[in-house]
Design brief:
The chain has 157 residues and is of the alpha/beta class. It has one domain: 3-Layer(aba) Sandwich (Rossmann fold), CATH 3.40.50. It is built from three helices and seven strands, in the order E-H-E-H-E-E-H-E-E-E. Strands 1-7-6-2-5-4-3 form a seven-stranded mixed beta sheet. Helix 1 packs across helix 2. The two termini are 18 Å apart. The mean pLDDT is 90. Bound molecules: adenosine-5'-diphosphate and magnesium ion.
């Protein structure tokens, strides 16, 4: 488990950027690569994903999809073709995800899937999900814990 304390949104974005670089280096490729982000409103999940998207080479603006639940972006890497950004803030039960074809999205190994408020649908997510928890600390501090990233095999190891 990696624990990082950031003191401003730039640092959280940078952590997202570096995490994307690590993720691109992973060999885990049987199904979609899933990052589950949890933490209260304003804890920094979307900020992290802004940096994460940059790290994937996207220059599109990442906004909170709170009102639309899902965004998809095309990627130009060989291994990954699509980046999905879900926000389950408004989801009350997993059944509401049916119409979004979440299972198809999770099955495709060329997808990278990041989900804000993922604990709301955790029973739908794969075991190998990378969990990222955000906590608001003092002032602008955010305590960010990344779990399972090391459990997934790296190409280089
Ligand atoms: P969430 O998606 O978890 O609801 P956002 O990333 O949308 O949170 O919002 C985080 C808010 O907190 C932003 O307004 C950002 O400027 C502010 N902020 C202050 N300090 C930090 C920090 N260390 N990391 C991330 N965001 C921070
Ligand atoms: Mg958000």
């Amino acid at each position: 488990m990696e624990k990082v304390i950031t003191i401003n949104s730039e640092e959280t974005e940078k952590l997202g950027f570096l995490t994307a670089k690590k993720v691109l280096d992973l060999a885990y490729n049987e199904k979609a690569l899933v990052l589950a982000l949890d933490g209260e409103l304003g804890a920094g999940k979307t900020t992290f994903l802004k940096g994460f998207a940059k790290g994937l080479g996207l220059n599109k603006k990442i906004q909170s999809p709170t009102f639309i639940i899902m965004n998809r972006f095309s990627l130009s890497s060989k291994k990954y073709t699509d980046f999905y950004h879900f926000d389950c803030y408004r989801i009350e039960n997993g059944k509401e995800m049916d119409c979004l074809d979440l299972n198809d999205v999770l099955d495709k190994k060329t997808n990278i899937v990041c989900i804000e408020w993922a604990s709301k649908i955790k029973n739908l997510l794969p075991k190998k999900t990378i969990n990222i928890d955000f906590k608001v600390g003092n002032g602008n501090e955010r305590v960010i814990k990344i779990k399972n990233l090391c459990r997934i095999k790296k190409i280089t190891s």
